[in-house]
# Entry
Amino acid sequence: MLPISIIAVLSYLIGSIPTSIIVARKVKGIDIRHFGSGNAGGTNVIRVLGWKAGFFVIAMDMAKGLVSTMFVARLMQGPIPFENATPFDDFTVVQIIAGCSAILGHIWTVFAGFRGGKGIATAGGMLIGVAPIEVAVSFGVFAMVFLLTHYVSLGSLSAAVAFPLTMFFRENVFMVDVEGYGTLIFFSIGISLLIIYTHRTNIRRLLRGTESRITGLRLFKKKETASTAG
# Structure
């Protein structure tokens, strides 16, 4: 069993595993940060190496947040070493600390010169365990925006904004009793602001009209048939 400081460090190290860099080197022998958008994330892997490698990276990055939140947090020994002023139980607080540490590790990875990804996938993995309904709605927003615009960055930013808004409307408009809302709403806003901050260069490119799109993404290749003369 581990103290909370070790939980945070261990989660940070898990989040720091540079999945996209490892996959790019294994598949093509390149540093993904020198190609495409220069970002060490799943979106850039899709852009440079294709959807199979990209989706694998996204899944692994999500797993980093999920593993830290659902498994590493369970290694905590005893009560947390500070007064729990939130409406969450102690374990949920530890989950949030572990998940946030993993996100920071992904963005500022110690294994790759503190130049990692944007944190979307790792944050998604962490938030699945904390607010699954809000995550589902945010994913739907991301998918809709991406399919309409083909901008992954715009979809990610839209999902980041949708996350706290969904929680706010569920609690205050639809009168759903969201457990721990008084604390979780501020936490969700903080996560969203962090994601927006990591996308600041994308925002500038979107405003200038120079952001790259992902178009022609095909999950299944059509089988070519040879035409015969009659």
Remarks:
- Confidence is low (pLDDT under 50) at residues 218-230.
- The chain has two domains: 1-118, 131-214.
- The chain has ten helices and no strands.
